[in-house]
Amino acid sequence: MIPLKKEIKMQIELTTITPTMAKTILLKNNYNRKIKPYQVESLTRDILSGNWKENGDAIRVMKDGTLLDGQHRLMACINADLPIKSILVTNLQDDVMPTIDSGIKRTYNDQLVLRGISYSGQVAAAIAHMIGIANNNPNRNKMATYAEKNKLLEQHLGLIDSSSIAHGSFPKIGSLLAAIHYIGVFTGHKAAADDFINVWRTGEKSYINDAARFTREYLIKSNGGNVGLNANFKTKLIVQSWNKFSMNEPMGQARVPDLYSIRGWTKKDLGF
Predict the structure, then answer these.
(1) Are 242 and 196 in contact (CB under 8 A)?
(2) Residue 167: exposure state from Cβ atoms within 10 A (0-12, 13-18, ≥19)
(3) What topology is assigned to 11-97 in CATH?
(4) Which residues in the chain are classed under CATH 3.90.1530?
(5) Do the beta carbons of residue 109 and residue 120 sit within 8 Å?
(6) How far is CA 233 from CA 142, 168, 219, 225, 240, in A?
(7) pTM for the complete prediction?
(8) Are strands 84-92 and 11-17 parallel, antiparallel or unpaired?
(9) What is d(CA 77, CA 113) in angstroms, rounded to the nearest whole number?
(10) Straight-line distance from the first to the last Cα atom of the chain, in angstroms, rounded to the nearest whole number
């Protein structure tokens, strides 16, 4: 009689993973994607700030000890030098790799929809713009975790109203205009912020050589800013138009400074 081959079943447990355990698991990290440093940094901040939550996402390990999923979480555990709780799945067969992370990841917009937030897509994108402006870097928003964005929204709930006001004011930049409107209100320039959005919506100038109207017309001539304009240049130009508009300063050339900032809006004001 031919003996039956013993089936090795995967094991699932909720466990506390220490930095030492994380280092051991990472010793066989052979088949994962390229490390994203900003993702490790973001998760590290969540752990250090107490925002880490055991949400059912698993760290997955093959039967030979090879790590399949969880490298960023394990590295964050090591960086924070604190233990984390996570589901740990071990003894996975070596043919499951193609099925890992094959689903569509829930976005921050999806989370806001589930919470019933109005203008969720615009709010989510506006938060990213607010982070970038406070950090003088249009790409800085990639560093923020969903938990951090939730805290920011709690501190700046007026952004929802600003998103409503800016909605539909100009194609494809509504979220940036919403962020600028909120920052304008936050920094004590509500009337100017309302006028700024009105200019973008109607094209009616508010003063001679109106900076908002100039920028609006410039984008229209370049097909809404979608042809021949670098994305960072475009966002900086719009932010620059607000800085000038809020001071009634003229604008007649599409030149922007290296700075990507708004007076009175700092990382401290952002709360991040």
Answers:
(1) yes
(2) middle
(3) 3.90.1530
(4) 11-97
(5) yes
(6) 18, 22, 11, 10, 10
(7) 0.72
(8) antiparallel
(9) 30
(10) 68
